[in-house]
Design goal:
Layout (H helix, E strand, L loop, with lengths): L4 H10 L1 E5 H19 L5 E5 L4 H8 L7 E8 L11 E4 L9 E9 L3 H12 L4 E10 L11 E6 L4 E2 L14 E4 L2 H4 L10
Parallel strand pairs: 2-3, 2-5, 5-6, 6-7
Antiparallel strand pairs: 1-9, 3-4, 8-9
Amino acid sequence: MALTARQVHTAFADAELLCPKEEVEAALDRMAVEIGTRLGARDPLILCVMMGGLIPTARLLARFDFPLQLDYVHATRYRGATRGGELHWKCRPETPLTDRVVLVVDDILDEGWTLAAILEDCRLRGAREVHSAILVNKRHDRKAPVTADYVGVEVEDRYVFGYGMDYRGYLRNAPGIYAVREDSTGIVSDPADPA
């Protein structure tokens, strides 16, 4: 069920700001320094995880002052839903990964199954080292056995959007990290989800 513009505006107006733009930008500054210190002299291949990783990747790239290559991967468990399902590969990177130092950049580490699969795929494709950078780490105990090497901010276990993360396909461009208030919109749940 597609959302109307009015529903999207209502969800945004009712959302709770968890991390303002200034906090997110400071986290990206810190991450860029950490990544540059560790990987800057190693000709890294940056892999953007589409679609959510687009904004965090772009914001990090603008801060990097070292040679790098950029490619992307598109694997998702959500496919427009609010809860993850089976992993669906849409596109793997075209750049050869053999003997490369790879940095995978994504928007959020929620349960971690998508990130774990992407990291494993990079290793299977011959990457010498695989690192991960996540803008948002969600705090809960449902995670796959994977942790990110670089983390921007941590948030509680809520439905969040902004800085690349979407609300039902919208609001990736929100200027901060927001949590949807389930009680105020009545449209948070995916109609296809039994939960």
